[in-house]
Amino acid sequence: SFQQRILEAAHKVFIENGYRQSDMRSIAREAGIAVGTIYNYYPNKAVLYQEILTGQWSELEQAIFRMTCDRELEPLLRLHNITDCLLQFVSQHSSFWREIMEDSKREAELPDEGHKAQIQAFEQLKKHLRRLFSEMVTDDSAWIERHVLTYIAAVTHIGVFFPDQLDMNREYVTELVQHIVQLTEKKNCDTI
User: Fold this and answer.
1) 51-65 CB burial, b ≥16 within 10 A, e <16
2) The whole model's pTM is what?
3) Cα(178)–Cα(192) distance, rounded to whole angstroms?
4) Element (DSSP H or E) covering residue 5
5) 115 near 52, Cβ under 8 Å?
6) Closest by alpha carbon to 152, among 78, 104, 98, 115?
7) What is the DSSP string of 84-120?
8) How far apart are the C-alpha atoms of 21 and 188, rounded to whole Å?
9) Residue ranges of the chain with pLDDT lower than 70?
10) pLDDT tens per residue across span 142-191
């Protein structure tokens, strides 16, 4: 039960403060236990964060993988479903999401387990999105990475700024992607 209390308290503290601003004292205070008790289960904050983020992210990543591979739906409809999933995650876990997507210092320092979990989550998401965008944009791999990053930025900022407007956010991001794909296709036709 101590470990469950630690995980619940850490999840709350990480959600409220983010990874960088959280500390073991705050987690212990939230759990109602001594700091030393946390160290019986987790050697440091990074390992604790890694466990929480990995648990939260793995469910989302598996859902995205299934949606990406669903060949019964056209790529844009699959992206529409993925956008729904991501926007819900952003609204419920905004600090996790922002740190995964925007932690600019992560690559400048020697990554700890927490940062490694963030990097892995980001790379997994980009891999799935690359596969999906490559189905939507014909013969233009140079633009796919830009499309993926633009999509991630749109989901991040729209989801963070308007967390209670999921339907409108999904519609906005979907229309943005349609516009991006149309522009890329037009550019490809113009160069031929």
Assistant:
1) bbbeebbeebbeebe
2) 0.83
3) 21
4) helix 2-21
5) no
6) 98
7) HHHHHHHHH-HHHHHHHHH-TTTTTS---HHHHHHHH
8) 46
9) 103-110, 138-140, 185-192
10) 788 888 999 999 998 899 889 889 899 999 998 998 888 777 766 555 55
